[in-house]
Amino acid sequence: MFLGNLSSDSRFADEANLFELAPAKINLALHVTGQRADGYHLLESIVTFADTGDRLGFSDADADGISFSGRFASLLPTSVEGKHGNLVLKARDLLRKALQDKGVSAPPVAIHLEKNLPVAAGIGGGSADAAATLRGLMRLWNVGLPAEELAVLGLSLGADVPMCLKSEPLMARGIGEELTALPDLPSLSLVLGNPLVGVSTPGIFRRLTQKDNSPIGALDGDWISFLKMLRNDLEPPARSLVREIDQISSLIGAEGTMLTRMSGSGATCFGIFPSFEAAEKAMENLNGQKPEWYFQAVRTVGQVPERIQ
Ligand SMILES: C[C@](O)(CO)[C@H](O)COP(=O)(O)OP(=O)(O)OC[C@H]1O[C@@H](n2ccc(N)nc2=O)[C@H](O)[C@@H]1O
Ligand SMILES: Nc1ncnc2c1ncn2[C@@H]1O[C@H](COP(=O)(O)OP(=O)(O)OP(=O)(O)O)[C@@H](O)[C@H]1O
């Protein structure tokens, strides 16, 4: 049972009934194209997911509980209370309420969150955890909800949660909830880099002055050439707020990337490399230069290409 604060990953692996990966979300491009009357911004984003992320374990229990481990566990909210309550607990309570409203039982559960992703980092950590909680609890409780109903529940937790429920390459539109699969987006070898400066998503949207930007348009040529023509419109306001983004972007770019860009509202930047071996080598070099920062080589989901252009 996961009651109390565990820090040992091996106990985590031994004891949970089932696991879910909460993969890091990467906005390969993000164009802000307008703003709704309620303040939310309209965007178009090409999104993919890494093969690594947070890990969650779920076990039957006598009472609800949560425990944490992993490099970034100490930065997490531990309760469900308030606007910044833990999204895992919010997702658990929301799903339980939805099921109970239908007369379906949702018994107590012990959840363990291995927090491997930096917090408030633009790679969807909290949203990915919330989505993994919804997926994991449906498996543990042996229940199903229609995909549309699950997406609506997810959206009430955060704009990124519906895309994290899918965790596949996609184009997001609207405020991030209108999703179209991109089955042709290839698997990419990336290095993610974060200077461990947390960035507030609403704070970055507030600093955005130009909201009426050009849309992404249709795929033109190969993926890398196409992505190079695109942007992350949140990058200029994030760079003006967090000086370290300039530095981490230059450091990653100096490792021989095909493209370097910021994800989401930052501060995580990614570099695309021609091979996973090249990404791993770059990660080692970057860790040597800035051991206190976060660098991770990842493969993204998608078709494995014969050759990256
Ligand atoms: C930047 C992205 O990560 C790109 O994928 C998302 O747009 C943000 O997704 P998220 O962190 O799940 O966002 P939420 O938790 O729903 O929203 C946090 C805050 O960001 C702002 N926000 C978010 C999404 C959006 N399309 N427009 C916005 O203006 C709003 O001020 C909102 O109150
Ligand atoms: N399980 C969780 N993991 C990370 N952050 C969480 C979690 N639950 C709540 N939070 C809170 O959510 C806020 C945003 O954290 P998160 O890591 O999701 O940001 P992000 O990576 O910028 O997300 P996005 O890319 O979706 O904008 C933080 O203030 C954090 O305290």
TrEMBL record:
Residue intervals of the GHMP kinase C-terminal domain: 220-287
Catalytic activity: 4-CDP-2-C-methyl-D-erythritol + ATP = 4-CDP-2-C-methyl-D-erythritol 2-phosphate + ADP + H(+)
Keyword Protease tagged: no
Chain ranges passing through the membrane: none
Residue ranges of every copy of the GHMP kinase N-terminal domain listed in the record: 86-165
GO biological process: isopentenyl diphosphate biosynthetic process, methylerythritol 4-phosphate pathway; terpenoid biosynthetic process
InterPro entries assigned: GHMP_kinase_C_dom, GHMP_kinase_C_sf, GHMP_kinase_N_dom, IspE, Ribosomal_Su5_D2-typ_SF, Ribsml_uS5_D2-typ_fold_subgr
SUPFAM superfamilies in the cross-refs: GHMP Kinase, C-terminal domain, Ribosomal protein S5 domain 2-like
EC number(s) on file: 2.7.1.148
Pathway(s) where this gene product acts: Isoprenoid biosynthesis; isopentenyl diphosphate biosynthesis via DXP pathway; isopentenyl diphosphate from 1-deoxy-D-xylulose 5-phosphate: step 3/6
Annotated residues for binding of ATP: 118-128
GO molecular function terms noted in the UniProt entry: 4-(cytidine 5'-diphospho)-2-C-methyl-D-erythritol kinase activity; ATP binding
Keywords: ATP-binding, Isoprene biosynthesis, Kinase, Nucleotide-binding, Transferase
Active-site residues, Swiss-Prot/TrEMBL: 25, 160
Family affiliation: Belongs to the GHMP kinase family. IspE subfamily.
Physiological role: Catalyzes the phosphorylation of the position 2 hydroxy group of 4-diphosphocytidyl-2C-methyl-D-erythritol.
Name under which the protein is recorded: 4-diphosphocytidyl-2-C-methyl-D-erythritol kinase
